[in-house]
Amino acid sequence: MAHLAELHEAGHLLAAGPLLGPPDRGLRGLSIWRGEPDEVRALLEEHPDPLVTAGRLRHEIVPWMVPSGALHFAVTRFPRSMAEAET
């Protein structure tokens, strides 16, 4: 979680969180990044996610088009641990 918090604080990651459902499903979480797919791919290579490196998760980059101004993300702080997330 600290890894995602750092990327969020740097302005790369807009939103992220787990998807609800059974633990054996293919998609476990969703992240919305600022940037083009190639930029995000390079960023993920430069700052590897420890769970991806350990083989527990994998990235799947899917381009998403939305009209300009359709989404707004409030300034927030991502939790750095499960202990922070539960408080």
Quick summary:
This protein has 87 residues and is an alpha+beta fold.
SS element count, helices: 4
Question: What is the average of the pLDDT values?
Answer: 89
Largest sheet, in brief, is: 2 strands, antiparallel
Q: Count every beta strand, where a strand is a DSSP E run of 2 or more residues.
A: 2
Taken from the alpha-carbon principal axes, the silhouette is: globular
Strands in their spatial order, largest beta sheet: 1-2
Radius of gyration: 14 Å
Structure description:
- The chain is an alpha+beta fold and 87 residues long.
- The chain has one domain.
- 30% of the residues lie in helices and 13% in strands.
- The chain is built from 4 helices and 2 strands.
- Strands 1-2 form a two-stranded antiparallel sheet.
- The chain is globular.
- The mean pLDDT is 89.
Descriptors:
87 residues, 13% strand, two-stranded antiparallel sheet, alpha+beta, 30% helix, globular
Task: Present the secondary structure layout.
Blueprint: H1 2-9, E1 13-18, E2 29-33, H2 37-46, H3 50-53, H4 82-85
Antiparallel strand pairs: 1-2
